[in-house]
Amino acid sequence: MRTLIKDGTVITASDTFAADVWIENSKIVALTDPSQRAALGTADTVVDAKGQYVIPGGIDCHTHMELPFGGTTASDDFDTGTVAAAFGGTTTIVDFAIQSKGSSMRAGLDAWHAKAEGKAAIDYGFHMIMTEANPSTLEEMAGLVREGVTSFKMFMAYPGVFLVDDQQIFRAMLKAGELGALITMHAEIGLPIDVLVQRALSEGHTAPVYHALTRPEVAEATGTERAIALAEMAKVPVYMVHLSAQRALERVMEARDRGLPAYAETCPQYLFCSEDDLRGEPGNEWKGAGYVCTPPLRPAHHHDHLWRGLRNYDLQVVATDHCPFCMKDQKELGKGDFSKIPNGMPGVETRLHLLWDGVRDGRISMNRFVEITSTAPAKIFGMYGKKGCIAVGADADVVVWDPAREKVLGKDTLHMRVDYSPFEGRKVIGTPSAVLSRGELIIQDDRWVAKKQQGRGQFLRRGTFGL
Ligand code: URP
Ligand code: ZN
Ligand code: ZN
Question: How far apart are CA 386 and CA 420, in angstroms?
């Protein structure tokens, strides 16, 4: 099966050039000068990319399909969530499997395989959330790494649920160093946050905005500094997930300036939404519940700092932390008590659309756009070469990006299984016109065109940390 993407402009993390992209079955086999096409024979499928960009499929290295949280479960599963991802130009996700406290990581990983297998429409990998780093779980890490689960998330937040103490984090980092695995960190210090939450509730503050007011920026900055200090002591790299704020970013910058391998991702909600969204509307404070995620949305002046971080390579990745809950029945669990609003926002489908706005207004280049949405996560999380590039031998995960096509974002124009959109009515310019996953054309002109949908995605055994 031969596919040709013709007449497009290929954008990689480093280069921009006119080329035809030839695909044999699931792999890219040649990038050729379009003027030589006649000599190269024919293709079974031809995708016309004239006037458009040809970019590597997006990699969203932070999703939570079917995550149990706060008495409910994230509303997208591996079927609906990965289909939505593909419509937005993302062809790989890395989701978080969870070790339940008192149980093994093996059991957690098996549970996540069962959720994804036969359902995912695009390729997927797993990180493992470690809720305990005791001798037996530390022992388990090697087996997981051998199976391609090469990164672990630990939490300084959520006491009693996910929180692990510094000694456990440090032990896991040492072990990760031996194995070439990567520790990723949720770096808000949760113990004082819980006190602020209890105090706010006892004072009668119940509205969604108190989610932000009880999780101040300093809690994230301190956690970030502490995580980096632990990694420095353990002599290992560390990756901060969902970094939201200026002071946390400054901690990462200081570490990087000292030559430490500290990496960080931010998310579209921290670039495009703010604490004002959490306040809801006059007479409808509750609307803010749709914007409750953790770390919380910050005042809008943080946006410029994060964009600068992306431009200057202090932030390496934009992932989504896709963790949708419907307003009805799910976010509603926190009506009258902001601390019971399930944490998370939908986003897996809109990441590229939103970030392209950053290209259009000159905040980042097209090459940087490709780097932060695909190439850098592929490199950091052990997928590069197979994913994250337009290169001979790579998986043909390719998006044809039409920079002129408009789309209005909203719950009815998007595919995520959630009853609202944080970006309802926002017009974006630039959207995928075709999406290929391992050489198969799966989406064309906003229609799913592949024969199979559920279960066509494959589990990705990722490599160890290679940077
Ligand atoms: O609000 C969020 N981020 N929900 C998902 C859990 C996490 O901490 O990533
Ligand atoms: Zn987190
Ligand atoms: Zn998350």
Answer: 35
8-28 pLDDT, tens digit per residue, is 999 999 999 999 999 999 999
Residue ranges of E strands in 262-397? 262-266, 317-318
Residue 434, pLDDT score: 98
**pLDDT tens figures, 191-216:** 999 999 999 999 999 999 999 999 99
Question: What is the best residue among 61, 64, 211, 298 to mutate for testing ligand 1's pocket, by most ligand atoms within 8 Å of CB?
Answer: 64
| 161 CA from centroid of ligand 1 (Å) | 13
Which residue of 294, 322, 341 sits with most ligand 1 atoms within 8 Å of its CB, as the best mutation to test the pocket?
Answer: 294
Query: Does residue 321 line the site of ligand 1, with CB under 6 A?
Result: yes
Q: Report which ligand 1 atom has the smallest distance to the Cα of 158.
A: 8
| Ligand 1 midpoint to CA 3 (Å) | 39
Taken in order of first residue, the domains within the chain and their CATH numbers are: 2-55+390-448 (2.30.40.10), 57-380 (3.20.20.140)
Q: How many CB atoms lie within 10 A of CB 81?
A: 35
Residues 6 or more apart whose CB falls under 8 angstroms from that of 181 comprise 141, 145, 150, 151, 152, 175, 464, 465
What are the residue ranges in the chain where pLDDT is below 50?
none
**69 C-alpha to ligand 1 centroid (Å):** 9
Cα separations (Å) of 420 from 15, 62, 365?
38, 21, 31
In DSSP terms, which residues pair with 28 in a beta bridge? 23
Residue position matching structure tokens 């602020």: 196
